[in-house]
Amino acid sequence: MKFICAMLIGVLSAGFVSCGDENEPDDPNSTSSIVGTWHGYSDAQKPSNDPMCAKFYEDGTCEIWWYHNPLLCSYYFSGEYTVFKKKLHIKGLWCDQGSRPHIEYDKTVTYSIKNGVLQFKFNLARWNLTKD
Fold first, then answer.
1. 4, 15, 19, 128: which is deepest, by most CB within 10 A?
2. What is the 3-state secondary structure (H, E, C) of the chain?
């Protein structure tokens, strides 16, 4: 009888421990986890600069504005995105300094959302963005 009680206590304890935690990262396979407006910086820049703004819409479209040096050039991207198995596929057109988007961009990259920070590689830089 003591053995049965011990097993029952162990099973119930495991059930409570396995419950989800509100601090767990967003499900990276869910498109809804990426929807919204994000601001941030690349690994090569200071966090206070916030040189990127990325908007991911529910309909699968996105817009991204960024610069590597605000005195040199700013860029704009417009296109579509998909999320699948920790991969972010971004496809569309981009441009620099106010011209019309005309340069093709079609990349699939690994991304993560951890502690409210979206990280992914875009235009040769790794970006760290937080949601507004």
1. 128
2. CHHHHHHHHHHHHHHHHCCCCCCCCCCCCCHHHCCEEEEEEECCCCHHHCCEEEEECCCCEEEEEEEEECCCEEEEEEEEEEEECCEEEEEEEEEECCCCCCEEEEEEEEEEEECCEEEEEECCEEEEEEEC
- The CA distance from 2 to 71, in Å, is 75
Q: Structural domains in the chain?
A: 28-131 (2.40.128.280)
Per-residue pLDDT of the chain (132 residues; tens, 9 = 90+): 665 555 556 655 554 444 444 334 445 446 688 999 999 988 877 766 668 999 999 999 999 998 876 667 788 999 999 999 899 999 999 998 778 899 999 999 999 999 999 999 988 889 999 998
- The predicted pLDDT at position 9 comes to 66
Which residue's entry shows tokens 């409570």? Answer: 16
Spatial CA neighbour of 77 closest among 67, 60, 92, 89: 92
